[in-house]
Amino acid sequence: MKTINLNISIRYCQLDELTGADLELIDHAMKATDNAYAEYSHFYVGAALRLANGRIVIGANQENAAFPSGLCAERTAVFSAQANFPDQSIESLALVACNDNGLVDSPVTPCGACRQVLLGVEERYAHPMRVLMYGKSGVYIVDSVKDLLPLSFVDSSMK
Fold first, then answer.
1. Cβ distance 127 to 3 under 8 Å?
2. pLDDT score for 24
């Protein structure tokens, strides 16, 4: 039997350690939580992404009584960006979540479906996407979605 070691890198920092551009993205994601429709879970997620051209696109989770019909904040932002700016890669994505008590303490991370979509976009443009995951206790940062989904299934997996 052989062991395969996977090396991933996740940085953990405080807000005062971030660049102005990263703080701006987190601020947009915080404001995007106001656009969430989370009638059932009461878990309001905001996403903000920065495109290669510098434009910021936001998204918020949208729930539906038929639960599979809702959509996460990450995917609403990504799909909006792809529909409106299909020639622009995504440089960075920030995530923020709150519940009825306010901002969550631990950094919020993308669900599995969102990780797969984010990886697909990263692969599409052959450009790594930084992901900033905010919580009141600190921020997780990865420099590529591959660090969130190390054993990934991408287009080349089917060849």
1. no
2. 98
Instruction: Give the CA count within 13 Å in the CB-facing half-sphere of 84.
Output: 13
What is the pTM (predicted TM-score) of this model? 0.94
What is the rounded distance in angstroms from the CA atom of residue 141 to the CA atom of residue 158? Answer: 29
Residue 123 belongs to what H/E stretch?
helix 112-125
d(CA 110, CA 87): 24
Distances, alpha carbon 134 to alpha carbons 27, 84, 88, 122, 125, in Å: 10, 26, 24, 21, 25
Strands 130-135 and 90-99: parallel
Which residue in the list 63, 74, 91, 122 is annotated as catalytic?
Answer: 74
pLDDT, one tens digit per residue, over 9-66 is 999 999 999 999 999 999 999 999 999 999 999 999 999 999 999 999 999 999 998 8
Q: Known catalytic residue: 74?
A: yes
Task: Yes or no: say if 33 and 45 are a contact pair by the CB < 8 Å rule.
Answer: yes
- Tens-place pLDDT, residues 121-159: 999 999 999 999 999 999 999 999 999 998 888 877 778
